[in-house]
Amino acid sequence: MPTTQTADRSLIPANGTALYRACRCFLRLLFGVYNRWEVSGREHVPATGGVLLIANHTSYADPPIVGAACPRPVNFMAKAELFRIPVLSAVIRRTHAFPVKREAADQQALRRALHLLDNGQVLLLFPEGTRSPDGRLMPFEAGAAFLALAGKAQVVPVGIDGADRLLPRGKPVLLAAKLRVRFGPPLDLSEFQAQRRSREVLQQACEVMSPALDDARRMPVPPSRHASLQTGDVIKRTCSTTARLLCLIGRLGSLQAE
Hints:
Elements: H1 18-34, E1 38-40, E2 51-55, H2 62-69, E3 74-79, H3 86-94, E4 97-100, H4 107-118, E5 122-125, H5 142-150, E6 154-161, H6 163-166, E7 180-183, H7 190-193, H8 199-218, H9 223-226, H10 231-257
Parallel strand pairs: 1-7, 2-5, 2-6, 3-4, 3-5
Antiparallel strand pairs: 6-7
Helix pairs in contact: 1-2, 1-10, 5-8
């Protein structure tokens, strides 16, 4: 009998799931109008192949911010406790999240991350390991460098400015804070690739990655981005994005009807 190949369910579709696309469309509208966000450097994200995005972490809003800003669908790590909540678990799985145990080295999550990168997907990682309490960049964890080297993927720094003001600690609602996202050029870690991934080599790789991420946070926004949006521009962008969102919702409804 002929054999049939089954799809690898650990990999997301090329354009992301329908729920992911709908959420991304809504968030782009929200951040564009409510937070007047500025996104620069999208051209630094390779169009194909595995990509590891490393971003600074100050707020729970960081993952959806990067997911909305990135031109390609993004996979996320989320703490395992969230996957014990029935409805939330279903939602975050369908928006490309997978669980990671933070109290110890999670080998299963690490294998999943490497599998995604090896299969040409995009993965977001916060190399500090936790949210910064004051916005300053904290030391990187060695696991971030291990993924960057073992995954053999392009490593792109992503600077986020304003997320801690958009969703401060202890605040249950989003605030109308200015938001900036900057993608930096891919890092050259080739000097470490052929070396044994010892603690010293991983530390040296972190010392290359950390300044690059700090530079991405401080990268100047192109002058045209600084100009305030005119009312007509906001209306046009709002109508266009809303129409796309309604179209996606309609498609989802028709699929459910079938």
